[in-house]
């Protein structure tokens, strides 16, 4: 093993371990329908959270309207279903393209602003998408639309099998994570990061941030559409609630809780929030009385999010034992 | 025509309530650079405390009055427990932590009062009896209580303007908003200033909740919808600008109420009735956000850029 490779491996150890654990989960007693559907939801939301993390952590663009891209992907699936089309080779590309197109158009407007104003303008577009879907009377309006048959692939119903659905979600999640990480390390990603750190300096060396940001925004939208299409298949029900601003907020909390420094953080954050919600709500009636303070405490004590936790723990250990610190020096 | 007048008055009344909540949010954001999602919680608590104490004391007015110190104390406690540790953190951490506070307080409310809407005493002693009305133009009766809210909503901004622009404390707040380090170097205890501003904003939001309790259902999560509209208000008005927040709050209130009443009827001219109702309702809910997106597009810093640029 070469040294840079080992360094990369160590940097992403936590996210890799999580993905491996997800791959092993069905064979370690989490293979029943309930556990698998819970994990599928966490992985699908994790996918959307990774794409949002690309914007928040990579490009410094805090979007509070990311659920809209998921909703558009999900509504594409049910719109095709209502028209009698359920072939994945048509439905999925269309869902991804629709979400990317939405992101491209709204991004072109939103990216003219920055900071808090960017947050609010993305919220505004998200709300417009939300109210638009609630006026789709042929797709159930406010009440939503029940998907009776999952999407087929070349006529075969592989998505109906829980285990293959699990591994499809896991594979796509890993793909999105690796792809996003490679993208951030590429020349394109370096321009994004430079523009995040100092837009003026990026301009001075000859990079106009706007087109780079717009492409990143559209790409994140495309991934959002993919995860939305998967979510429609996982829950077999789509309603405007999927696009509400609280959903966008939830995705943002997953990213922040996991840690904005690495895309892998979003996977950890999504898993942590989905699993914690599920466990606590089973144990307690007023479970948010525990969940809320946990969020506050995580902000106060884990400033770099969950991905930063091992490093922080190690630093605390070193501080406690001065002998080892001397040995390192 | 009279229908339009009633909707305009309703919009005005909703607008002044929004301003009372948004003013504190804008001050806290402008002075301390803190994004406080949990500000809507103060509004909800104000309504709950006013409702409960109103029933206990037998008078709505007494309950509403007592809600003020309670909101102030809760604001101080939350500032001491949580927000104080967030001033130096980035906006993202503030968003997550204050969201945690929302979840906790909403759930505590559910545990203490239950999920059902609370009963609220009718405000007594107004002309025309409880919840009575006065004739504003010939043949049109409008509830007195709603007029009282509009009146209060015009008095409080005037008072606030006087406090911020004409007193020594207000001068420190304005200076602290733009040059916190300098104000601190001149010997002002900036921490205490922050605490006072925070508690004052919390009290205003609680006051708005108490005023709103006879009109809107008092239920858990009632602060969350108001909160998001308040963010719209402060962004349209310009972050940190009280005057901008006031004008934007009235604009948002009017747009929302008048749009809801008028758009379905307007669309009926071009669409069939049932789809006009549905599209009109969706479009009316969107109206505020469409206007915000347009304003941000043409004036990215809001209508009245003031205070710290965020």
What report would you give on this structure?
Chain A: It is a multi-pass membrane protein. Chain A: This is Branched-chain amino acid ABC transporter permease. The complex is a heterodimer of chains A (329) and B (310). Helix content of chain A is 74%, strand content 1%. Chain A has 329 residues and is an all-alpha fold. In chain A, helix 3 (33-58) packs parallel to helix 7. Chain B contains eleven helices and two strands. Chain B has a two-stranded antiparallel ribbon. In chain B, a hairpin with a 2-residue loop joins strand 1 (133-137) and strand 2 (140-143). The model of chain B has no long low-confidence stretch (mean pLDDT 85). At the A-B interface, helix 6, helix 11 and helix 13 of A face helix 4, helix 9 and helix 11 of B.
Task: Identify the notable features of this structure and list them briefly.
heterodimer; A: 329 residues; mainly alpha; 15 helices; globular; disordered C terminus; B: 310 residues; two-stranded antiparallel ribbon; 11 helices; 3% strand; ABC_transp_permease (chain A); Branched-chain amino acid ABC transporter permease (chain A); membrane (chain A)
Helix content of chain A: over 70%
The general outline of chain B is: globular
Structure classification of chain B: mainly alpha
> Assembly type of the shown chains?
heterodimer
Q: Main β-sheet of chain B: number of strands, strand sense, barrel status?
A: 2 strands, antiparallel
- Spans of at least 5 consecutive residues with low confidence of chain B: none
Roughly how many Å apart are the termini of chain A?
26 Å
Strand content of chain B: under 5%
Organism (chain B): Azospirillum melinis
Keywords (chain B): Amino-acid transport, Cell membrane, Membrane, Transmembrane, Transmembrane helix, Transport
Family (chain B): Belongs to the binding-protein-dependent transport system permease family. LivHM subfamily.
Transmembrane segments (chain B): 12-38, 58-83, 145-164, 193-219, 225-258, 279-298
